[in-house]
Amino acid sequence: MTLHIIRRKIINYVMLIIASLATFIALSFLGWLFYVLIKLGYPGLHWSVITSMTPPPGSSGGLLNSITGSLLLSTLAILIGAPIGIMAGVFLAEYHPKGIFSTTVRFIIDILLGAPSIIIGLFIYQIYVIKTGHFSGWAGCFALSILVIPIVARTTENIYTLVPYTLRESVLALGAPQWRLIVFLLSRVINGAVFTGILLALSRIVGEAAPLLFTALNNQFLNLNMNQPMANLPVTIFNFAMSPYPDWQQLAWTGALLITLWVFIINLICRLLIKQHKIAH
Asked: What is the pTM of this model?
């Protein structure tokens, strides 16, 4: 065995040890996080958490109003942002893949993907909350929908570009217009992947507190009026975690555990959909 081969093997072992150590450290912090969440959040995880209202200090209660508000805000944000993101992704992939305009749109999407969510909240606060004169559920919904749009748009564009161009040519050669190609063929081929992108966007917004602090704010009561401040789980967790009351702190840890389980389930569904999509193709 030559010296060169021995040197390569030593370098390979060293890099393998470094990579394994880095992976172990990352998984250790993740496991530590889950351990703390389960240890502090599980004792308060009972049926009344999802059936009772937010309590005053020293009283028993739950997070019904916050959970309901988060579900409503997230659902409406997806209903607003997902169609816009899908149409933007289809436009960039099918109608205008090259050019200055499409390059500019992609650049803006990339900026929105990396923009801090608190900046989005301040933007909606300036153009909507100040103009209307009050916090509202609609303001929080619009802020979350802005976070949804770039994720769905980028996912949709990437998925459409993976479809073989020969498939497009075979349909267009039969005389079908491009809109029919997109609606009736390509959408059926990649609908599962686009839905996965929507779920990824949903997992992004369910735990966002920063944009809601400046838009939906919070509400101690169950409120379904989108024109008024609306309770939501992330802001409730923030407020309760900062409070000096042990019962509120317990609810904050329980709420954090609920959001973590929510995101875990959404990502698990995404994994299953991606696996089924690969098997189908």
From this structure: 0.89
